[in-house]
Amino acid sequence: MKRPPRRRHPHSDSNVPHVGLARALSKLGYCSRARAFDLIRSARVRLNGSIRRNPETPVHLNEDRIEVDGRLVVEASKTHLMLNKPRGVITTASDEKGRDTVYSCLRPDLPWMAPVGRLDKASEGLLLLTNDTVWSARVLAPETHLDKTYHVQISRIADAELLNSLLKGPPGREGETRGVKRASLLRCGERNSGSKSSSTKARIARSAASSIHLNRSLAPHPRGNRAACARRSSQRRVRPLTASERFSLDSAMRALEDC
Question: Would the pTM of this model clear 0.90, i.e. be above it?
Answer without folding.
Answer: no
